[in-house]
Amino acid sequence: MTLYQPFLEYAIDELNRSLDLGPYPIPAGFEHKSAMTGSAKKAQEVVTTSYAYRAPKLRQIRAAHVRGGKQLQVLNFVIFPELHYDLPFFGADLVTLPGGHLIALDMQPLFRDDPAYKERYTSPIWELFQKHQVNLPWGGDFPEEAQPFFSDAFLWTRPKEDDVVKTHVFAAFKDYLQAYLKFVKAAKPVLEDCLSEVREAQLRYLRYRAAKDPARGMFQRFYGPEWTEEYIHGFLFDLERKLAVQTP
To answer: Taking the CB of residue 103, how many other CB atoms lie within 10 A of it?
Structure first.
């Protein structure tokens, strides 16, 4: 079992238990992709598997799981709410590279600097953040341009040991997901005059993530630029495409 398989299985089990989960369409060619990398003597298969669901209040729940041996493992797991809810995004980027682990876990806000929004979605998880930060200290420099898309309860850490990922990171992942599901259960549709703000906030986030996706270089090396760009814009961050199809 790979390092992040238990995270993925836990998330899917919890979502099935807590929500009326249904399938979300994955475009052809993205469900499963593999390539060989490395020299002939040290060849390694890299496999990317995609998962996608939807549920009431949640437009898309999706995961990309990359397995390329012990030193290349990635789980990108994101939940996108429907456009008539002001819920934050649930975002987990769990990355293992030869130099160690890069862990980013957050409920990414639509309106980071709005005090009422912070009170609704960041304050309730502040104690969770403080609890887990004891074992998962701040990981250091983070791009300034990315900061508006993360909350004050953003867990960003760089553990060296697998055991830290298996225990402390997994515990934080579980707690954040459970807290997010509580937010979903309590969420009410926004007022009509707020719909455009919510939509634009979601689009800002998705455009930024699609433009700056840190996995772009990795995917291009393994699967080529054409597949990579279509995967990013047609599946991972597909809202703009979906809205364009809906527009008469």
So the answer is: 23
Q: Which two tokens stand for residue 32?
A: 């499963």
CA-CA distance, 157 to 134, in Å (whole number)?
Answer: 11
Q: Which domains does the chain have, with CATH numbers?
A: 5-246 (3.40.1500.20)
C-alpha 182/C-alpha 134 separation (Å) is 24
Number of H-type helices and E-type strands within the chain: 9, 8
With CA atoms as reference, report the closest residue to 243 among 199, 188, 193.
199
How far, in Å, are 195, 198, 242 from residue 192 at the CA level? 6, 10, 21
Q: Mean pLDDT for each consecutive 10-residue tract of the chain (248 residues)?
A: 94 96 96 84 88 98 94 95 97 94 96 95 96 95 86 96 97 98 96 92 94 92 95 95 76
Specify the long-range contacts of residues 58-63, CB closer than 8 Å, at least 24 apart.
58/19, 58/82, 58/184, 59/83, 59/239, 60/24, 60/238, 61/15, 61/21, 61/24, 62/24, 62/235, 62/236, 63/8, 63/11
Tokens (6 digits) for 22: 């249904």
Size of the chain, expressed as the number of residues it contains: 248
Q: How far apart are CA 122 and CA 116, in angstroms?
A: 10
Q: For residue 7, count other CB atoms closer than 10 A to its CB.
A: 23
pLDDT digits (tens, 9 = 90+) for 148-184: 899 999 999 999 999 999 999 999 999 999 999 999 9
Q: Name, in order, each residue with C-beta under 8 angstroms of 243's C-beta and a sequence gap of 6 or more.
A: none
The percent of residues in the chain predicted with pLDDT above 70, rounded, is 98
DSSP structure class, residue 140: S
